[in-house]
Amino acid sequence: MSFSKALKELRVHFCQTSPASNGIRQFVASNYTAVKAANPNLPILIREAKGAEAKIFARFEHGQEKKIILDGLSAKEIEQKLATLVK
């Protein structure tokens, strides 16, 4: 999954134990290595915090940010949402 050069940073937030964050934990465990290999210069920040809502922030050129909430979604649904977010 290669991203646009306009994408400057990806931040992933989730809870380590919450059932609502299962999908994002599974997505990170399964896809982080491949995503980082396809985008070696892109900072990908993983933030785990108790009770945190599962979400991804994408920061683009000129400081523009977009966010998606991912609570309760499966890893496959998260992959689809992420692809839409970074277009």
From TrEMBL:
Major location (coarse): mitochondrion
Record key words, sorted: Electron transport, Membrane, Mitochondrion, Mitochondrion inner membrane, Respiratory chain, Transport
Residues annotated as domain Ribosomal protein/NADH dehydrogenase: 16-87
UniProt entry tagged with the keyword rRNA processing: no
Cellular localization per UniProt: Mitochondrion inner membrane
GO cellular component terms, A-Z: mitochondrial inner membrane
Bilayer topology annotation: Peripheral membrane protein
Keyword Transcription among UniProt keywords: no
Family in the record: Belongs to the complex I NDUFA2 subunit family.
Free-text function comment from the UniProt entry: Accessory subunit of the mitochondrial membrane respiratory chain NADH dehydrogenase (Complex I), that is believed not to be involved in catalysis. Complex I functions in the transfer of electrons from NADH to the respiratory chain. The immediate electron acceptor for the enzyme is believed to be ubiquinone.
The protein's name in its UniProt record: Ribosomal protein/NADH dehydrogenase domain-containing protein
Species assigned in the record: Podila minutissima
